[in-house]
Amino acid sequence: VKFWNQASFHELPDHVLEMAQKAQALVVNLTKTLQQTAKNSPQYAKQALDSAKKVSQNPALVKFWNQAKVEYKFPGPAEWPQVRKGFDKVMKSAQTGAFLGMPVREAAKNALVVAEVAAFFYVGEIIGRRSIIGYDV
After folding, report:
1. How far apart are the first and last CA of the chain?
2. Helices 14-56 and 59-71: crossing angle, nearest 10°?
3. Residue 127, H or E segment
4. Which residues, including other chains, have CB under 8 Å from residue 14's CB and lie 6 or more apart?
C-alpha cells in the first residue's frame, strides 16, 4: 500500500523521501501487528482469565488476602480509643522499664511490627519523591 506517489515529491531531498518511506513501512507493519493482535485477542483474554482463576484458587494466596484485608486496614473512628490505649500502654512500659520483663517471642514480634512500619514509611518516601536516592534539586 502506498500513501503517495514518489514522482509528485521530486523537489524533496532524498533523505526526506527515505525517511517517509521508512515511516510508511513502520505504519504498515504496525497496522498488520495490531490486526493480528485483535484477531487473537479472544484467545489472549481466555488465557488471562484462566491464569487469574488458577491464582485466585491458590489456598495460600486466599489465606494471605483474607488476613491482609484485616491487618492492613486503617483503623476506623470506633477503633481510635483502642489505638490510644495501646499507645499509652507502650509509653508507660517505656517509662517504667516494664518492657524489659517481656518474653523474647513477644519482643521479637514487636520488633517485626516496628520494622514493618519503618519499611512502609520508607517505601512511601520513595514513592513520594519518585526516586530511590534523594530529591531532585
Report:
1. 51
2. 90
3. helix 104-129
4. none
